[in-house]
Each structure stands twice: as structure tokens, then as C-alpha cells.
Write a structure and sequence with these properties.
This protein has about 60 residues and is of the alpha+beta class. About 25% of the residues lie in helices and about 20% in strands. A hairpin with a 5-residue loop joins strand 2 and strand 3. The chain has two helices and four strands. It has a two-stranded antiparallel ribbon with strand order 1-4. Strands 2-3 form a two-stranded antiparallel sheet.
Length: about 60
């Protein structure tokens, strides 16, 4: 599974952090950080985070539902 966040679109609203805290988080400066190749068992939460993103800045490829 591969995750990409379009930084030009992302506004750091944090919905992905709440949907998939095992993949997304904020650094000390409140900037979004994420694992671009998380473990397969995080697929469901990663897909939920992508669906919850109001700006559709998150792309998830190769995830089995």
C-alpha cells in the first residue's frame, strides 16, 4: 500500500489523524506527517482517512479493503 498527500491541497485540518492515527500525525510544528508505506493492517483506517479528507488530498493505492 502506498499513501500520498498532496501538500498543495492539504490544509492540515487533522481529520485524517483522527481517522488513522496509526498512519497520520502532527509534528511539533503542527504539520502533517504520515507513513507513505504503512503496514497492510492499516489499510482500512487509511482508506477511511482518505474518504474523510474534505479536500481529497489523500491518495491510497494498493490497499485491500
Amino acid at each position: 500500500m502506498r499513501i500520498h498527500v498532496d501538500r498543495a491541497v492539504c490544509d492540515n485540518n487533522g481529520r485524517c489523524v483522527f481517522a488513522a492515527p496509526d498512519v497520520f500525525s502532527f509534528d511539533d510544528d503542527e504539520n502533517l506527517v504520515y507513513d507513505p508505506a504503512p503496514a497492510p493492517e492499516t489499510a482500512r483506517s487509511a482508506l477511511r482517512a482518505a474518504a474523510d479528507c474534505p479536500l481529497r488530498a489523500i491518495t491510497v493505492r494498493g490497499a485491500e479493503q
